[in-house]
Amino acid sequence: MLPPALSIGNLLAHAEPPAAGERTETLLQHGPLRIERIVSSAAITPMDFCQEQDEWVALLRGEATLEVAGQTVELGPGDHVFLPARTPHRVLRCSTGALWLAVHLDPASG
Q1: pTM assigned to the model
Q2: In whole angstroms, how far apart are CA 11 and each of 29, 50, 51, 66?
């Protein structure tokens, strides 16, 4: 029997891409730390982000092109990037079923 606080999941389970855009699921929220799984379709509309928290994101599956602070960044499976708070960024393109792991550190909660 597992301890009550222990939660086991699988990053690859139920990871079918949406028809359009992205699906974001919070896997863990613990104090200032938030971990999300993001599943992308190829049919995305680039949106500008400039968040108040630091974000570390890893592309686990697929390919993607980001624009980070005006620079184009190509990502493949296993690539990761750190986005300090207030860094402008957006996803320009990604392959269907691109699977991301995003870790956010919220300064307001810490």
Answers
A1: 0.88
A2: 16, 26, 24, 22
The parts of the chain modelled with pLDDT lower than 50 are 110
Please report where in the chains the tokens 């009550």 appear, as a residue: 4
Report helix, strand and coil shares of the chain as percent, to nearest 5: 0, 50, 50
Q: Identity (one letter) of the amino acid at 13?
A: A
Give every CB contact of residue 78 below 8 A, 6+ residues apart in sequence: 58, 59, 60
CA distances from 58 to 1, 2, 4, 72, 110 (A): 32, 29, 29, 16, 23
* pLDDT recorded at residue 2: 64
Domains and CATH numbers, the chain: 38-102 (2.60.120.10)
